[in-house]
Design a protein that fits this description.
- By secondary structure, the protein is an alpha+beta fold.
- The chain has 53 helices and 23 strands.
- β17 and β18 form a beta hairpin.
- α37 crosses α51 (1414-1420).
- The protein starts with 14 loop residues before the first helix and ends in a 5-residue tail after the last helix.
């Protein structure tokens, strides 16, 4: 939709820049193609695929960081880097001439070349990207509509005529029209034509709006539109989770638009923080979460607007042109019956009990219903104008629908109004937007597969394809969610109604629904219902990775997994023809009985082999029932079915990746002693545990680093022999350090990982110097290679062979790591190859075991080590889970992670978040079974009872509420009366007994319906403990919420939030007293709603992603301008694919705001960041961790723009949300508090300022230790505040601390140390002065006189801003090359005595990660403001997680 507030091409680069963008884009493309990625299947390209088929061998750390989260969507594209190609690949040892030519260009083409360098190549690749074709031209046209002024709009020539329709229906002056056509020179324009295809349309043409006659459909659309306009401001839809609406409070908090130039806001700043924001809050209140609930709705325009009960028009009236009748009650209490005819709307003479369709006297016919209503009701006219004003004042982002529904976990009481349209929507089986589509139900499968088949050769084609995929997928998720809720609510008839309810399957709206129970003992061997419950999630994971690989001709089903009311529902699109035949007949590949009978199919093998290259799946053979070997390229369970449409579908992808042996009890597997000591193997409740794709990639990359290192050493030894003959060869000395290193290291790869971790912490930004050494190194190896290759190929092959053996590669002569997913599956008979070859079973088993071992021994420590720097600390369970997943660690390892965190006081906050997450997940498991045994009649009572047991120790009396007992009696008529009342008493007695014994073993007399009433706080917490031990092998050391709060410092409100979000409960927005001793905390009115929790795949925008990463690479090198252009280009493409609202658009906006700020344009930064905040609130949720981050950034920019009070309010909001989610004890809170303190200091509120900075200092000391830069800065800020308060002695002491830290960390000469010394001198002077004056007073005995004034200069806004920038990790530094080299050598000395050796290690790593610095540097540029950060300082305050993983799922 065209938002006229910001025309589509607002961030399109102007024509002049377009050329540079075209070139860069060409380059981004070229990398893409060299990555042998799915976009071209050109055979020459294939031999570049470095090691494992998708070129990701060299994707190095960068892609690892970035691809982590999105990796499931497509292999991260490595940058133009074919360095080790010949080395790693046995068969590519003689590169083809053209390839060699390309490879020799310059390993860092992407980094060092001038922009234009890559463009010609891109064309050679056969894909000349013309971004102009994409941005096309903007044209300005005038639109004249009856009764309104001429409207001048700027449009893009790509847009459809229909978008002008949308635009007019959105504008204040024309929004009341829906039924009109657009005419140019009296020719009606086709709604679906692009503007550029229309003849005679040029700059300044005038398009006329012509009212068209209504049809029945148009009349209904019009009424619906009017109703939407009237309830536009009402947040009820957002709370009810309807129509992809969601909340945003930025405007409420800033009281209007930040960018308003009109100073409507008072200048005097009220900066006293509310109670719940000052340090020392223990339980934050809940109400401020939704500010302004009272007056959100806006004025009421009508009492009732509904379709009339006289519908449809009878025959005679139909022939007079009546379409439908409406019934209206105005605010003046007048009642009207309105007829709709083709000319418009008029009032008729019907009343509630007589039908008289004749026009009223005087009849007033108007084409628009709004005109008619304004005519008959003055209060409607006034209210409608107010609503319109407020509607158009809102930011455009507040009005657009989000891609997926966001649910709120707390909601105020909403007034329920009469709304016939809502009622009609609820009971019609249609989905709201299908009225606009001819042919009623949609064939989802056809739509999903056709969009995948769209062409993808050029950029515009790919954009079109990705947009279509995204659109259909979004609609499918919405439809599937609605269907799943209907299924659980009992609104859909099963296709096998005779069977047990757990076995039933459903079809609704062309979607197939099944429940997560073990039907017909299908999973009996694998863990029964537990396995059946997780299978859909693993299957979805498989669908995600196959979708990401995007092999042409291989199709997956649309899949959505929905958890609702304790049931898990899988929604799938339907393969054409599958319902007509038995499954046995349709499966042509794979096995339907876990490997007893196995089939294969040549076409499937070919398709799956292509996908397997990317997913590291090893083709393998198994024996079928006739003992014949059958070749497979996937796990045995994966089934191939050819649909009636001739497409090749694969389903049941739950075993796409290899099993996790740490959670399987296997006879023939010996796991290493270290793991046994840690308590492995742990028997899991199902046997479907798989390793994550991220883990396999990290594992392979780790092996690749060792492989390169070992090969380099061997090569160098060969070279040393040659050296005597060829004295003129110089590159070798670079390698000498490595030799010694690798000799000691042998084949062990343990060091490399640790070093990488060290590097991450030590080096803030791999400087260009780094790439230089890498280049030297690469050239050295290359030269060595070519020399060796020309003179003696046998030796080279030998080198590779030895390196392969050392790292455990599957193939003897080439680096090959792939996994057999069936290797430990019971009941499958494998064909064992000979020892030492690819097909040797023993070798495959070892590989899978080593990967699982790598997870525990390397990845978990790596995860913890990475978070030691606190550069982007997880804030809640969700961000913790994402971070674990990005390291390839499954959540079932959470117990082990917690054990390790428990030993590190500096990771206290993460320990607490992890425990909270574990409790929430354990409780979720219990809650689901609890809900399945609850009748719909008692849902609210049961849920409130459960929350009482979980969160309070007070009384819990789940006696069935009086109104329900009443219902039972009246329903049962006279006969039943006696029985039910007795039942009620029995249950209460039962409950009392249960409470005394503290046990929940129900005795037989209670009716089974109230099982839920037997749970007590004690029994629930015992269950949680058992669950924690059984599932995570972790001993939860608390038996009630009290002990959990005191032992682990968990906040109850955080637990409530996390739990409600996890299982989909919406509670009433009010203050809960968890300590209440007399009545239960939660009553059944406190449960407002239950929501589905929806899991689905997220389609990607590949081109945008490439632009984004290239842009990041530019920023890493300090080329902000270029980075800015590339990232705004990425945003443009994202808008093209996803529309205006999407998480990834949000990350782009944040990045752009950051860059604008760095480039000195604070105003622009503010405007962009404001959009980022609204976007995050709408798409992620109002209390999502990334929303908090956006708020803190916005406050910095608004301070820079002089909105001081504003920036404080934003910080208060951020701090409140932080404390609500995870409590005050968190490194991020320290940052927020430092910011608040600084701004309060600037406003002269010294006492308040001091409270915040003291809190920040306490946290910084705890998390960064007493020698850290953060701490020095906190001490300095305290000194500043205290000196302003006249407390010079304390100020002196604090500044001394600062000085000593700087001196020990940076040395005497550093300017910071010198500044601090200067500061000390001034403070001492002031203190001496003060003391003198005090002495004077004492000696002369005149205590009566006031103290003489001491010169305290309040800080200037500029100095405060500088300080703010420093704290937030933004330093505007222009660094020369010399400085970088200097800093680098310092760092080297710092972390390795033997600097030469470490240079070589770096170099070797740089081979792997050469051009891909982006991810790692992003990580490195932490909030630290020490000398190292000087290099990386231009970047972010440790936003790594959020920016690099912009594309997170």
């Amino acid at each position: 939709m065209a938002l006229e507030t910001e025309p589509k091409n607002s961030n399109a680069t102007s024509a002049g820049d377009a050329t540079t963008t075209t070139k860069t884009s060409g380059k981004a493309k070229e990398n893409n193609n060299t990555a042998g990625s799915k976009k071209n299947q050109n055979p020459n390209q294939q031999n570049q695929n470095l090691v494992n088929g998708n070129g990701t061998a060299a994707d190095g750390l960068a892609a690892k960081k970035k691809g982590k989260k999105n990796r499931n969507k497509s292999p991260p594209e490595p940058t133009a880097e074919h360095v080790g190609a010949a080395l790693s690949n046995g068969h590519a040892e003689k590169p083809t001439a053209e390839e060699a030519g390309k490879a020799e260009v310059d390993p860092n083409a992407n980094l060092e070349k001038p922009e234009g360098g890559a463009a010609p190549q891109a064309e050679a690749e056969g894909e000349d990207i013309d971004l102009d074709a994409l941005h096309d031209v903007g044209i300005t046209v005038n639109i004249s509509s009856p009764g309104a002024d001429l409207l001048c709009v700027q449009l893009s020539s790509m847009e459809l005529v229909q978008e002008i329709h949308q635009l007019l229906m959105d504008r204040e002056e024309t929004c009341h029209r829906t039924c009109f056509s657009l005419q140019l020179d009296n020719v009606t324009l086709d709604n679906f034509a692009e503007l550029k295809t229309i003849e005679n349309l040029e700059q300044g043409s005038t398009i006329k709006v012509v009212e068209e006659p209504y049809t029945m459909r148009e009349a209904r659309i019009h009424v619906r539109h009017v109703r939407d306009l009237l309830k536009h401001l009402d947040p009820a839809d957002a709370y009810n989770g309807i129509d992809c609406t969601s909340l945003t409070y930025l405007n409420t908090i800033t009281q209007g638009d930040l960018l308003d130039k009109k100073k409507t806001r008072p200048d005097s700043v009220d900066c006293t923080p509310p109670e719940y924001v000052t340090p020392g809050v223990n339980e934050p209140p809940l109400l401020p979460l939704h500010p302004n609930v009272k007056n959100a709705k806006g004025p009421q325009a009508l009492k009732v607007l509904t379709t009339s009960a006289w519908n449809p028009p009878p025959g005679p009236r139909k022939l007079h042109g009546d379409l439908m009748y409406l019934y209206v009650v105005t605010m003046e209490e007048k009642r009207f019956h309105i007829s709709a005819c083709s000319k418009g709307f008029y009032i008729n003479q019907s009343t509630d009990d007589t039908f008289n369709p004749k026009p009223d006297n005087p009849s007033h016919l108007s084409h628009s219903l709004i005109d008619l209503l304004s005519h008959i009701s003055p209060s409607f006219r006034r209210a409608f104008q107010t609503i319109q004003k407020r509607r158009t004042m809102r930011h455009a982002f507040e009005r657009v629908a989000t891609p997926y529904q966001v649910y709120q976990w707390a909601s105020p009481t909403l007034e329920h109004t009469v709304d016939a349209i809502r009622a009609e929507d609820a009971f019609s089986s249609k989905l709201g937007y299908e009225e606009h589509i001819p042919g009623q139900t949609r064939d989802w499968n056809e739509e999903l597969q056709t969009t995948r088949e769209l062409p993808r050769k050029t950029l515009p084609e790919r954009l079109l394809r990705e947009r279509a995929i995204f659109k259909v997928h979004g609609d499918f998720v919405t439809a599937a969610t609605r269907g799943a809720m209907a299924v659980i609510d009992g609104n859909v008839l099963a296709i096998n109604p005779g069977e047990d309810s757990k076995m039933q399957m459903f079809i609704w709206n062309n979607i197939f629904f099944s429940l997560g129970f073990d039907v017909r003992d299908h999973y009996k061997e694998l863990g029964g219902d537990a396995a059946a419950f997780v299978a859909p999630r693993y299957d979805l994971h498989g669908v995600r990775v196959y979708n990401a690989v995007d092999v042409e001709g291989l199709y997956t089903l649309g899949t959505v997994v929905i958890d609702y009311r304790g049931y898990r529902v899988t929604a799938q699109s339907i393969i054409p023809g599958i319902l007509e035949r038995e499954q046995e007949q349709s499966v042509v590949y794979g096995s339907i009985d876990f490997g007893k009978t196995v089939l294969s199919h040549p076409k499937y093998l070919e398709l799956l082999r292509q996908a397997g290259k990317h997913l590291k799946i090893l083709p393998h053979a198994v024996l079928n029932e006739r003992d014949e070997p059958v070749e497979l390229c996937s796990s045995v369970e994966c089934k191939g079915i050819i649909g009636n449409d001739g497409r090749h579908y694969i389903l049941d992808l739950l075993r796409t990746f290899p099993p996790d042996v740490n959670f399987l009890k296997l006879q023939d597997v010996q796991i290493s002693k270290e793991l046994v000591d840690m308590g492995f193997p742990i028997e899991h409740r199902h046997k479907l545990c798989c390793l994550r794709q991220e883990l396999l990639e990290a594992f392979i990359e780790d092996r690749y680093v060792s492989f390169i290192r070992i090969a380099a050493v061997h090569l160098q030894q060969l070279n040393a022999k040659k050296q005597t003959e060829k004295a003129e060869e110089k590159p070798v000395p670079a390698l000498e350090g490595a030799e010694a290193e690798a000799k000691t290291n042998g084949a062990e790869e343990s060091e490399s990982k640790e070093e990488k971790m060290e590097e991450k912490e030590e080096k803030s930004q791999p400087s260009t110097g780094d790439t230089k050494t890498a280049e030297a190194m690469v050239n050295a190896i290359r030269e060595a290679q070519s020399n060796v290759a020309t003179s003696n190929e046998v030796q080279a092959a030998e080198v590779v062979k030895r390196a392969c053996a050392a790292v455990g590669s599957l193939k003897e002569k080439e680096f090959d790591f792939r996994f057999n997913p069936d290797v430990f599956s019971p009941g499958i008979r494998h064909v064992d190859g000979e020892e030492g070859t690819c097909s040797s079973l023993a070798k495959q088993k070892v590989l899978v075991q080593e990967a699982a071992e790598f997870l525990v021994l390397k990845q978990i420590p790596a995860f913890i080590k990475e978070h030691l720097a606190h550069s982007s600390p997880p804030i809640d369970g969700q961000s913790l889970t994402e971070s674990l997943h990005s390291h390839g660690i499954n959540v079932r390892y959470l117990g082990k992670v917690i054990k390790m965190l428990g030993q590190m006081p500096r990771m206290d906050y993460l320990y607490r978040i992890a425990i909270l997450e574990l409790i929430v997940r354990a409780t979720k498991h219990i809650y689901y079974t609890y809900m399945q045994n609850t009748e719909p009649l008692h849902l609210s009572a049961a849920i409130s009872h459960f929350l009482n047991c979980l969160l309070t120790n007070g009384p819990v009396n789940p006696a069935v509420s009086s109104e329900e007992a009443h219902k039972k009696r009246t329903n049962g008529g006279k006969h039943n009366k006696h029985k039910s009342s007795k039942g009620g008493k029995g249950q209460q007695q039962q409950q009392a007994v249960g409470n005394q014994n503290g046990s929940s073993s129900g005795s037989s007399n209670a009716s089974s319906t109230s099982d839920w009433a037997l749970v007590t706080p004690r029994s629930l917490w015992q269950q949680i403990r058992r669950e924690a031990k059984a599932y995570w092998d972790w001993d939860l050391d608390c038996d009630s919420i009290e002990s959990a709060v005191s032992k682990y410092g968990i906040l109850r409100i955080s637990l409530l939030r996390a739990f409600c979000l996890k299982v989909g409960i919406q509670v009433l927005l009010r203050e809960y007293n968890f300590e209440s001793k007399h009545k239960p905390t939660f009553g059944d009115d406190d449960i407002v709603n239950v929501f589905p929790v929806v899991k689905h795949i997220s389609p990607r925008a590949t081109d945008a992603y490439n632009f984004y990463t290239t842009g990041q690479a530019k920023i890493q090198q300090g080329m902000f301008k270029e980075g800015y252009e590339l990232i705004s280009e990425a945003l443009n493409l994202l808008n093209n694919v996803f529309g205006a609202m999407h998480q990834e658009n949000g990350s782009c906006l944040r990045m752009l705001a950051r860059l604008s700020y760095l480039l000195g344009d604070a105003q622009d930064a503010l405007a962009i960041q404001q959009r980022a905040v609204i976007m995050s609130e709408r798409v992620n949720g109002i209390d999502h961790p990334s929303t908090i981050l956006e708020y803190t950034h916005l406050s910095l920019y608004s301070f820079a723009n002089g909105h001081v009070g504003m920036s404080l309010k934003l910080l208060y909001r951020a701090r409140y949300l932080m404390v609500l989610i995870c409590g005050e004890d968190h490194p991020e809170v320290a940052l927020i508090d430092s910011n608040i303190s600084l701004i309060l200091h600037a406003l002269g509120e010294y006492e308040l300022s001091l409270r915040f900075i003291e809190h920040a200092l306490k946290l910084n000391l705890k998390y960064f230790g007493n020698k850290a830069m953060h701490v020095a800065v906190s001490y300095h800020l305290m000194a500043r505040t205290q000196s302003c308060m006249g407390d010079f002695r304390s100020a002196l002491n604090n500044e001394k601390e600062t000085y000593s830290i700087y001196k020990s960390q940076l040395g005497e000469k550093h300017e910071k140390t010198r500044d601090s010394a200067e500061c000390l001198r001034l403070l001492t002077q002031q203190a001496v002065l003060l003391q003198r004056k005090m002495n004077d007073i004492y000696s002369s005995g005149k205590l009566t006189s006031d103290l003489p004034p001491i010169h305290i200069t309040p800080p200037s806004m500029g100095s405060v801003l500088d300080m703010l920038n420093t704290i937030n990790g933004i330093l505007f530094v222009q660094i020369s090359q010399k400085d970088i080299v200097k800093v680098r050598s310092e760092i080297e000395k710092h972390f390795k005595a033997n600097s030469a050796e470490s240079e070589v290690n770096d170099a070797i790593k740089s081979i792997v990660a050469a051009a891909n610095n982006n991810g790692e540097a992003e990580e490195g540029a932490s909030k630290d403001i020490n000398d190292q950060a000087v290099t990386g300082s231009q970047l972010t305050n440790g936003e790594s997680a959020t920016t690099t993983e912009a594309t997170s799922s």
